[in-house]
Write a structure and sequence with these properties.
Shape: elongated
Organism: Desulfobulbus propionicus (strain ATCC 33891 / DSM 2032 / VKM B-1956 / 1pr3)
Low-confidence stretches: none
Helix content: 10-25%
Number of helices: 7
Protein name: Flagellar Assembly Protein A N-terminal region domain-containing protein
Structural class: alpha/beta
InterPro entries: FapA (IPR005646), FapA_b_solenoid (IPR046865), FapA_N (IPR046866)
Radius of gyration: 37 Å
Largest sheet: 14 strands, mixed
């Protein structure tokens, strides 16, 4: 007849021997009778702290060929007892060794001290005569020396209070007594405190039940006790009785500490921001990050026709949101939705009462941003802009069906669509600019208050108040975006400066044979210009100071030298305090930190060694070539550093 196997587990500290009913790392043992169990313990040398009642239960199960229903502790060693003078603890800790995962995923053994649960007003230490340190004995009868051979003095720790006569230390909360060093290097003095059974998180939105196994002779609290503790703690909202029951069952069955959320607050619901619901089809906005994180690369719909008095859009007001409630029943204020900074110009009108935006006359629609709408006429130039047409200055939207030749200028209040190239020419728009070809030449420049969409650049410059989208390439160019800067995944940039007040997503950056590029996200273009100006000023001032000191001598009294040193110090202070994220006059309370933490630089191809990476006020230079990588700021400042560093992460988009 096949008998049910049992497993004998001996703790690593040799203080506990337990019979287990299920498989473990120990070798299975099959016993023919209950008497053979005692012989097994003798053979293993287990002679101290035997629990004869537990052994009798196990022997009965073996004789009846019944499996164990739960782990049985059959031997318990005697742990060493520290000596105390003055206050004496009202309990004796029982060590328990458990296995848990370490920081790198490895299994580590941790020793815990099991102590009974205490409640408010219950004594954890009483006055008594000094007691010497007593060594312990493990289940094999071996002596265990006391780790602190001398006598210790107990002082009040967290969640305990000492009586007026100094004769008793009592708990002020429900929890488990715990020892801690009173001060570093003072082994003769220990704090006796109480670790809370139920811990509220700092945001008051969760209550954690931190349950520990009960030492021999004591029981776990039942569900009614836990609910009573919640009442006493004032935790009245979002209780989870099922979670309490499961935590108690796990702790009882596994004999391991358990931490479980047993109460949840209700998070406030943020109000939705105001937005424009368009009554006409405006088409895609190239470069816009969609809800799934992908970038919209579709072409912009240019010159959308509208009639006089036609409804263009309706402003949907922000919603207030709804308040939440914490676990103590207190309301949690919600964040209302933000209003839309609506800008309606030229031949469009806005009615604040109805929220309607209508065309004042027939024309074409232009959207500089999601909150800026204008209507203007459309002007078509069917050839190149050259000596025949001269420079173009228009209050309308422009469609140029040729190229813009060198040294010519185009200036318009509406959108500009150029179907050819920009050749060393200057383009300026109060709206958006779309170039179907590219831009070449050292003096070629686009300045736009809205977005810019272009195929390629060579030696050109783009300054956009909105986003920039480059579809093919950028060589030896400079681009500054007031929002995001994106390119298609196959695009390549060499020896270029890409700066965005928002995020950057590009293809490949750099090469082995060209000057390194700069990628700067969460950086205000105007602040970066100020940064470069101050750096040049400091270099010039340093050179001037060195030249003057060489002329008059370093120790000579010179009014001119003093003025130079004062100017240099003023420039140095401005340089050190310069915030690249946002100008001082528009600086939020957190100096733009939350915005910088939300911005990323994503390179979907290669980014070559030597490329300078900036996010906000942090900077790094790549020492090696990387592929398909995402750069972002670390959430916390590393120990010993004065600012956040930039993390290199695998791009998962």
């Amino acid at each position: 007849m096949n008998r049910s196997p049992i497993f004998l587990h001996i703790s690593t500290d040799k203080l506990r021997a337990t019979l287990l009913p299920t498989a473990s790392t120990e070798e299975a043992v099959t016993l023919d009778s209950g008497a053979a169990l005692s012989q097994l313990l003798d053979d293993r040398g287990i002679v101290h702290g035997l629990d004869h009642q537990a052994l009798a239960r196990a022997a009965t199960c073996i004789d009846r060929d019944e499996p164990l229903t739960e782990p049985l502790l059959v031997a318990q060693g005697t742990p060493p007892t520290p000596g105390y003078r003055g206050l004496q603890p009202c309990f004796r800790p029982v060590p328990l060794t458990v296995e848990q995962a370490g920081e790198e995923g490895q299994t580590i053994r941790v020793q815990l001290l099991l102590v009974p649960l205490v409640g408010p007003g219950e004594a954890v230490a009483d006055a008594g005569p000094s007691s010497p340190a007593v060594p312990g004995k493990n289940i094999f009868g071996e002596k265990i020396p006391c780790p602190v051979p001398g006598e210790q003095t107990i002082v009040a720790g967290n969640n305990t209070v000492l009586s007026a006569d100094g004769q008793q230390l009592t708990a002020t909360v429900w929890g488990y007594p715990s020892f801690a060093a009173a001060r570093k290097g003072a082994a003769e003095q220990v704090k006796l405190g109480v670790d809370r059974l139920i811990q509220a998180t700092p945001d008051r939105m969760q209550a954690l039940l931190r349950l520990r196994p009960a030492p021999p002779g004591h029981d776990l609290p039942d569900q009614a006790t836990v609910l009573r503790v919640l009442d006493e703690e004032g935790i009245v909202y979002g209780r989870l009785p099922q979670a309490i029951s499961q935590c108690l069952e796990l702790c009882r069955g596994q004999q391991r500490p358990q931490t479980t959320v047993i109460a949840l607050g209700l998070l406030p619901v943020k109000g939705s921001d105001a937005w424009l619901r368009f009554a006409i089809e405006v088409g895609p906005l190239p470069g816009k990050v969609m809800g799934n994180g992908e970038i919209d690369y579709r072409e912009r719909n240019m010159f959308i026709g509208v009639n006089k008095d036609q409804l263009i859009a309706v402003r949907v007001p922000p919603s207030p949101g709804s308040p939440g409630r914490d676990i103590f029943g207190a309301p949690v204020a919600q964040t209302p939705g933000k209003d839309l900074a609506l800008k309606v110009t030229d031949d469009a009108s806005f009615d604040p009462e109805s929220g309607e935006i209508r065309a004042s006359r027939a024309g074409v629609l232009s959207m500089v941003s999601e909150g800026s709408v204008k209507v203007c006429s459309r002007q078509i130039i069917s050839r190149d802009v050259d000596f025949t047409t001269g420079n173009i200055v228009s209050r309308d939207a422009l469609e140029i069906r040729g190229s813009v030749r060198p040294k010519f200028r185009v200036n318009a209040l509406g959108d500009i669509l150029i179907r050819g190239n920009i050749e060393k020419a200057q383009i300026r728009s109060d709206s958006n600019v779309v170039v179907k070809a590219g831009m070449v030449g050292d003096h070629a420049v686009i300045r736009s208050r809205g977005d810019v969409d272009i195929q390629f650049l060579e030696n050109g410059r783009i300054f956009a108040g909105g986003s920039i989208l480059v579809r093919r390439s950028g060589y030896y160019c400079r681009m500054h975006a007031g929002a995001n800067l994106h390119s298609e995944p196959a695009a390549r940039f060499i020896a270029s400066q890409l700066v965005a007040a928002g995020s950057i997503t590009v293809g490949t950056v750099g090469s082995d044979n060209a000057d390194p590029s700069l990628l700067a996200a969460a950086v205000s273009p105007e602040q970066l210009q100020r940064f470069f100006e101050l750096r040049r000023t400091l270099a010039a001032q340093t050179e001037a100071i060195a030249a003057l000191q060489q002329l008059v001598g370093p120790e000579a009294d010179s009014e001119e030298l003093e003025e130079l040193l004062a100017e240099h110090e003023e420039s140095r202070q401005q340089f050190a305090s310069l915030n690249l994220i946002v100008p001082k006059d528009r600086e939020p309370e957190d100096q733009g930190l939350s915005h910088a933490l939300a911005c990323t630089i994503v390179v979907r191809g290669k980014v070559f060694a030597g490329t300078e990476i900036r996010i906000g006020n942090s900077r790094t230079v790549l020492g090696a070539t990387l592929s398909n990588v995402c750069f972002r700021l670390r959430d916390q400042i590393p120990a010993g550093a004065d600012k956040r560093d930039i993390l290199f992460l695998a791009n998962k988009k």
